[in-house]
Design a protein that fits this description.
Number of strands: 0
Largest sheet: none
Number of domains: 2
Structural class: mainly alpha
Helix content: over 70%
Length: about 210
Amino acid sequence: MKKKTESNKSERILDSAEELFSQHGYDGVTIRQIAKSAKVDVALANYHFGKKLDLFHAVFDRRAALLSDTRRKVLQDILNKDGELTLEQIIGAFLLPLKMAQETGDPGWRNYLALLAYVMTSPIWSKELMGKDFDKRVGEFIDALKAVFPTASEEDIHWCYNYVSGALALTLAQTGRIDRLSQGKCLSTDFDSAYERMIPFVAAGFREVCG
């Protein structure tokens, strides 16, 4: 029973840290704030995770492997199917985080994806955290894109991939800016709408540059 209670407290600490880091970034959060949000003593947070940097890594790593592996499986399933590989299928696999967050109904995923956007767009954290689970998969998507655009230069494909990453990061960040600009007609939390529109938008850009 004690182990289960400790495990629940550990998850609460991770959940609270995930939410606070996603909203304020690494430098805007203290261990004390995280402990208060999780309703635990600061000493317990330190006991489970050590320094704030260690906790930040633990929060990022908790969902990273699952997200990266699921995205890779979707791409592999597409590649293994009979029939012509389409650009839209590849883009759909890359944008999978939007679908995962919408379909699970778990608010933690939304917090994590906002945190992922923060890490993706940080020169420091991107270099430190993206390589382990995410960057190592990029080559598989690049190879799939090369199969669709065999005559395109590697520079064009990589730049287009970079633009997709940027659009994805802005969407995952859920800043609320589109809500204000559209006067509520569009919602930054509406990942379904973002996913449906981003696929044809991105595909058109790829075909213009690489096709």
